[in-house]
Design a protein that fits this description.
With 555 residues, the chain is of the alpha+beta class. It is built from eleven helices and 21 strands. The strands form four sheets. It has a nine-stranded mixed beta sheet. The chain has a five-stranded antiparallel beta sheet with strand order 2-1-5-4-3, with helices on both faces. The protein is rod-shaped and about 140 Å long.
Length: 555
């Protein structure tokens, strides 16, 4: 065995040196609790030397060392029948070995915290490191003291500190990036949800129950806040509803199977049919839900029926729509940071007579603060001189197709019709108190279905202290809708809301979104006449005006 021969040769060479072969803590029976070898020795040799130690101690009780033919045992009894044992060569300096033994006798209880067998076992690795501070590889004694050994054992590695600091910085950066991504995704989801409620776009999924404010949300199909849909508002909304895309028609209930009576059992249904129609009309008039009967499949809940009536055919040769959209960005104190109004005059010729129309407007009375632009196919010279909108070359407008013939824009900050002032304050007890004020800033407008959407940052319901108007909380989206049926300069130009909700982040209540609809335009554009281009005879027409926000945000 070449390897075994080399090991034995090294061991025999070490015996001729003045070195410590092994340092151990063992029991009286020779069982090693911890042992550290400083020269090349196999396990069987170490166990054999330790097993022979108790027999040798029995014959030399008055000494601190015993010798055999090959090694010397230098030992010191410890508490609890334990021994601190050095196995050295016979040629080693016995005085130096005793000094090493006394130092190790101080190190063992200091490092292990005691001289019990279980403490030695629990701190075995620390004891081995301490032995290495006293004796070097090869068994030579180091110039060390108990204090220097403590310092060396407690000394931190500079490279280890750098590695841990880099590792911690990477983990912190990854955690911060994860939180940033999660916050971005949540903000995108909330922004999409708010846009669904405010802008009138069709929702892409289930967005919760912020319905029941007329034009401000999805139809609730019999929810509590459907009572806000008054009959007068329903009539106006049929004319123009900027949130019509959000209203889900409820599926009609399946009709009961018809039963055909046999011969001789024919019943007269004339009076019964009239009675059912009368009851259905009474229920619809009183906003009641029918119980059974023919009308059981119709929604007579709180508000209008969910199934919208089919659009009526145009009753005039010409339809005109004056539409304005506003984009507003405000700060949290109610100051307008940016505001832009864009308007368009749409024309739809329903018949050939409507296609030959000439539109006259009050151009001479329009303020210079508004910028106007005609369609490239419209005769711009006739508009600039006489305020007349007609196609170039005497051509007629396309039939049954809406075309924009005039656009205008306005960019002053005074165009914003509503000012929002929101003050969230942390109460320091895990709740935030919020005071929000709404103020009508333009006295020439009448706004309907004003919805102010506030993110709460939590699904917990708010505790309302005081409120003007109505509110609804949607726990699924963590949002609250503050609603006014109508806001104008005469009756309800201001409103305030105070509530508290669980949380500790005042920034969670922004951005605030505002939605409304109005039949009053900011631009004082007036259709003064609609006549035939050849005969000059007036053409019957219907005019629709709408003013809605495209984006109205307070952040």
């Amino acid at each position: 065995m070449p390897c075994r021969s080399v090991s034995q040769s090294l061991y025999r060479f070490a015996l001729n040196l003045q070195v410590v072969l092994s340092a151990s803590v063992c029991t009286r029976q020779g069982k090693a609790l911890v042992s550290r070898q400083f020269v090349e020795m196999n396990r069987l040799r170490v166990e054999g030397l330790l097993a022979a130690f108790p027999k040798l101690v029995g014959h030399a009780k008055q000494h601190t060392y015993v010798e055999t033919d090959s090694v010397r045992y230098v030992y010191q009894p410890l508490e609890n029948n334990l021994y601190l044992l050095l196995v050295t060569t016979k040629a080693s300096n016995i005085v130096e070995d005793l000094g090493t033994l006394r130092l190790l006798a101080k190190v063992v209880p200091d490092v292990a915290g005691g001289l019990q067998e279980h403490t030695i076992n629990e701190n075995a690795f620390e004891l081995i490191f301490a032995f290495d501070e006293v004796l070097t590889a090869g068994g030579y004694k180091e110039e060390a003291t108990l204090s220097s050994i403590r310092t060396n054992l407690l000394m931190d590695s500079h490279e280890e500190k750098i590695h841990k600091a880099l590792q911690q910085s990477k983990e912190d950066a990854a955690r911060a990036e994860m939180q940033k991504k999660a916050k971005t995704l949540k903000e995108q989801k909330m922004a999409q949800l708010r846009q669904t409620f405010v802008s009138g776009q069709a929702p892409t999924g289930a967005v919760g129950g912020m319905e029941g404010f007329g034009g401000g949300g999805i139809s609730s199909q019999g929810g509590l806040f459907d009572q806000f849909n008054m009959d007068q508002q329903a009539a106006v909304q049929q004319e123009y509803n900027p949130y019509a895309a959000l209203q889900k028609p409820s599926a009609p209930a399946p009709s009961a199977p018809k039963v055909i009576a046999k011969s001789g059992m024919k019943l007269s249904m004339g009076k019964t049919g009239k009675k059912d129609s009368l009851m259905a009309a009474m229920a619809a008039e009183d906003n009641l839900m029918p119980i059974g009967g023919k009308g059981a499949g119709t929604d007579f809940g709180f508000g209008a029926a969910a199934v919208a009536p089919p659009p009526a055919a145009p009753s005039t040769p010409l339809s005109l729509i004056l539409e304005e959209k506003i984009n507003v960005s405000m700060n949290r104190e109610g100051g307008v940071e940016s505001c832009e109004v864009k308007g368009t005059l749409h024309l739809t010729a329903n018949t050939d007579a409507g296609a030959a129309a000439v539109i006259s407007v009050n151009k001479s009375q329009l303020p210079e603060s508004f910028n106007f632009a005609t369609h490239p196919k419209v005769d711009k010279k006739a508009y600039e001189q006489n305020g007349v909108l007609s196609l170039k070359g005497g051509k007629g407008f396309p039939v049954a197709r809406s075309v924009g013939i005039l656009r205008w824009s306005y960019g002053n900050e005074d165009a914003a019709p509503i000012s929002i002032n929101c003050w969230p304050e942390d109460e320091g007890s895990g709740r935030i108190n919020v005071n929000i004020e709404m103020e009508m800033t333009r006295d020439n407008l009448v706004l309907h279905d004003v919805n102010i959407l506030l993110p709460l940052g939590t699904t917990d319901p708010p505790s309302i202290e005081s409120i003007d108007g109505q509110y609804k909380h949607d726990p699924s989206s963590g949002m609250m809708c503050w609603h006014f049926d109508m806001v104008d300069a005469n009756t309800s130009s201001t409103g305030s809301l105070e509530f508290s909700v669980a949380g500790n982040n005042p920034d969670a209540f922004f951005p605030i979104q505002v939605g409304f609809r109005s039949q009053t335009l900011l631009c004082p554009l007036v259709i003064t006449g609609v006549t035939n281009s050849s005969s000059g005879a007036p053409i019957p027409n219907d005019i629709t005006k709408s003013f809605v926000p495209d984006s109205y945000q307070c952040s």
